[in-house]
């Protein structure tokens, strides 16, 4: 039975102050993680500025600005000077990420420094692990990922984020970190990482596109959600402290399903393709970039994400 005109939902939409008063989902810059691509030499990206490569010195300056804006966490990716078949630059004690960690830790100690643990940026073939023929060898890759994680924490990482999608990698990292005396270091697992078309700009920025084939043999089929929950369950059992869904916008239903199933903090990666679509559409005058970005990020938060990795983090801090 209709209760109109007694009930009029538009009453609380009448002014901006009323809308703000009853808003159900709010963005807080403290919930955001800003990604950076660290390389021996800088490389600008005018259409997509957040996907530029920075040197260690530039990263330190960026980190100081982020801290001043209230951003509390950075996610670091590294592009090495040289690559090889094993991706040995990933665990080099003087590798690009390790240098970046030490520099930022010294100058901006209050920031949470998270590192991406994967081999794709470091291998000459661009795949996320070592190869057996043209297949990624799962178990042989685990040891190298574990060495990488330990080297990152030794250099100053607060948390490590394995993104490779090898089976058993969370357990391998947990065992290696514990053996090295880093029992207190949390693991942010890319638990449900889909083989997505939305990674294109990232792969160019990180110089990590596969030289042959694709990553569908280890990243998830975008059609599956029950499988995502199995991935999350296994990673939790292996010692994950946070679970991540990537990409975010095409998988809001997955974020919601993970949020409803598990009690630990849930992260979502607002990936480069999502950023690029709105950024370029805004530049072309087809939409209001700021409004579209805030709406998209609010949807990710509303779906259940506690932590959002986003290339808009710095701009969002200024908008909010």
Detailed description of the structure:
By secondary structure, the chain is of the alpha/beta class. It has a single domain, classed as Aldolase class I (TIM Barrel, Alpha-Beta Barrel). The strands form two sheets. Strands 1, 2, 3, 4, 7, 8, 9, 10 and 11 form a nine-stranded parallel beta sheet that branches. Strand 9, helix 8 and strand 10 form a beta-alpha-beta unit. Helix 2 crosses helix 3, helix 4 crosses helix 5 and helix 9 packs antiparallel against helix 10.
Helix content: 25-40%
Structural class: alpha/beta
DSSP summary, beta strand count: 11
**Oligomer classification:** single chain
Spell out the helices and strands N to C: HEEHEHEEEHEHEHHEHEHHEH
Q: Class in CATH?
A: Alpha Beta
Q: Topology, pairings included?
A:
Blueprint (H helix, E strand, L loop, with lengths): L15 H6 L10 E7 L14 E2 L1 H14 L3 E6 L17 H12 L4 E6 L13 E2 L2 E2 L1 H18 L3 E4 L6 H11 L8 E6 L6 H7 L19 H13 L3 E5 L5 H10 L4 E5 L1 H12 L5 H15 L3 E4 L2 H7 L1
Helix pairs in contact: 2-3, 3-4, 4-5, 9-10
Describe this structure in a few short sentences:
The chain has helices at 16-21, 56-69, 96-107, 138-155, 169-179, 200-206, 226-238, 252-261, 272-283, 289-303, 313-319; strands spanning 32-38, 53-54, 73-78, 112-117, 131-132, 135-136, 159-162, 188-193, 242-246, 266-270, 307-310. The chain is α/β, with parallel strands linked by helices. Helix 3 (96-107) links the parallel strand 3 (73-78) and strand 4 (112-117).
């Amino acid at each position: 039975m209709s209760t109109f005109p007694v009930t009029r939902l538009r009453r609380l939409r009448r002014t901006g102050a009323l809308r703000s008063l009853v808003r159900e989902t709010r963005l807080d810059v403290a919930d955001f993680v800003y990604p950076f691509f660290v390389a021996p030499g800088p490389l600008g990206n005018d259409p997509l500025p957040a996907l530029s490569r920075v040197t260690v010195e530039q990263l330190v300056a960026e980190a100081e600005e982020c801290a001043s804006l209230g951003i509390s966490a950075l996610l670091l990716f590294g592009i090495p000077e040289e690559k090889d078949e094993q991706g040995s630059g990933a665990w080099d004690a003087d590798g690009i990420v390790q240098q970046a960690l030490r520099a930022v830790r010294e100058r901006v100690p209050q920031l949470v420094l998270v590192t991406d643990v994967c081999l794709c940026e470091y291998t000459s073939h661009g795949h996320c692990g070592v190869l057996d023929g043209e297949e990624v060898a799962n178990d042989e890759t685990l040891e190298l990922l574990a060495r990488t994680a330990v080297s990152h924490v030794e250099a100053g990482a607060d948390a490590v984020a394995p993104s490779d999608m090898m089976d058993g990698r969370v357990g391998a990292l947990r065992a290696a970190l514990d053996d090295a005396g880093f029992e207190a270091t949390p693991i942010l697992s890319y638990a449900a990482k889909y083989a997505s078309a939305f990674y294109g700009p990232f792969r160019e920025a990180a110089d990590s596109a596969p030289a042959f084939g694709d990553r569908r043999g280890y990243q998830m089929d975008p059609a599956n959600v029950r499988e995502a929950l199995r991935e999350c369950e296994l990673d939790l059992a292996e010692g994950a402290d946070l679970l991540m869904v990537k990409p975010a916008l095409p998988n809001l239903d997955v974020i919601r399903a993970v949020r409803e199933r598990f009690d630990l903090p849930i992260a979502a990666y607002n990936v480069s393709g999502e950023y690029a679509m709105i950024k370029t559409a805004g530049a072309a005058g087809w939409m209001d970039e700021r409004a579209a970005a805030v709406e998209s990020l609010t949807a990710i938060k509303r779906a259940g994400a506690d932590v959002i990795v986003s290339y808009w983090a710095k701009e969002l801090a200024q908008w909010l």
